[in-house]
Amino acid sequence: MGGPGEPPEGTPEGAPSGAEDEYRSVVFDESFVRAARLQEYSARERMTDHTPAVRRRPALRRGLPRQALVLFLLIALAFVTAVYMGVRSPYRAPLAQRPAAPLRTTVIPLAPQGKVPGAADPAQLYAHSPAKRYLAGAEGIALPAHRAGAHFSDSQVVAALSYAREYLVASSLDPAVLLAGRYDGVRSLLDADQLKQFDRSVGHPAADGRHALTGWLVHFAPDRARLADPQVRAQGALQVREADAAALEVSADVTFVYALRQAGSAAHAPASLFTVRRELQFRFDRDDLRRHQVQLVSSTVQAGPLSCAEDATAHFDPVLAGQTAKAGGPAGTNPYAQGGATPVCGTLSPAAQPQV
At 327, is the pLDDT very low, low, confident or very high (cuts 50, 70, 90)? Predict the structure, then answer.
């Protein structure tokens, strides 16, 4: 018999039930029931062996969420990539910088044949000499077209050329170096490994192939000569190449021409020309380029007019207008003696002198 208000045969199929609507919020679906940790035994199971009404179900093993799995794979891939790049890095480790080698110097005095020509006007001397088309000062030092190499960038190549040119200007054109004997500007450009050798060359110059001050710079005996024209003429060029993966090599071949007068002479006293050809080899590693400094590898200097009898390692004592070279030459050389350089002296060609 149905309840109050219900048909005797119960609620028709498909018709909504009031009780069902009342408990709809607490009815659990099948997936929720299967996931429950406690499960009620059936009536048959409860009748045997006084089995408890419920039993604990083993926890369901759920797989990792898809997002967590993807994240794990990405982390593993990044780790493997980092290990591979550390073992097979495409970038080379920085090469160790080797200490700067000592400078090798060769200074060759050029003795004139007969009297040295002179004129009161330095411009006249230049106009009638091989230096007539030379430019004034640093403008005569040409830089080559530069480009990046296999191991050095274009900016590093430019820096090496600029530093070499700066050294040539400081050591060949600065009046403080030429006559006053103030070498701080030159010294500040040198690699720290060469400072001890330079200081010894200043304090104790020697013709030993290592400590000729005139191999480092141009300096005239101040009690012998002065500049008749502050505009020194120059002509020459620089070349650059990669010596190896760790260094650039710059070679310089520049000729400087100075108009000189006797120290203490009048302004209208005759002047003469003095020529210095400097062939220098520079080396630049990455530390030098970063610190704005140079390594001098070798220096070959030809200078005249000079007397072969005079020592040209500490300064140049030029043969001036109207003078002739002193007789004599280098002292005898003992080939059995170790540690010394063989003295060398040449002859200044008349074609190298002004035709006045």
Answer: confident
